């Protein structure tokens, strides 16, 4: 064993440094579910900037320094406060914000988001059920626009609050509003649980269809 280590120490050092890089600087995150549709699709692999918010001790949630402030609209990877699962959602509200949702319409600090219809689409939930009455909308909130999905035909948490986001915590929602296990179910997310900001799609493949690459999504920036 000692001779093997000696003969391969360069490779071992590379593995250690690569591991540190992935856990402290940058990482990639496969998208396994449809909770961020239509902006992120199953089979996308996104680049995550782990230095966007915090510098952490590698392999821990111990924050050494705060490097940047999370902003409303960021697409964020984080550890679920419920069970530690890595999730990716949209940061909707900051500490101190008062948030409510009235029949799918988001209200932040008394300002209701505006919605414009894009069109009706088919959306699959689970492995077998397809809803043909899903609606793609453009949501405008805080001066920013983004596409979202709603599915009137399924049971979902369409209204809540008003609630005030506690100090040092954040509210996360999926862009696929009626098919996302987000802060409506797992609660607010503490800053130390933030992993990083998703910057762009690196590569993508149609994992729910023919597994062919989706070249148009390669290196696509996230809004």
From TrEMBL:
Its EC number is 3.4.21.89. Its main location: membrane. GO terms for molecular function: signal peptidase activity. It catalyses: Cleavage of hydrophobic, N-terminal signal or leader sequences from secreted and periplasmic proteins. SUPFAM superfamilies: LexA/Signal peptidase (SSF51306). InterPro entries: LexA/Signal_pep-like_sf, Pept_S26A_signal_pept_1, Pept_S26A_signal_pept_1_CS, Pept_S26A_signal_pept_1_Lys-AS, Peptidase_S26. PANTHER family: CHLOROPLAST PROCESSING PEPTIDASE, SIGNAL PEPTIDASE I. This is Signal peptidase I. The gene is lepB.
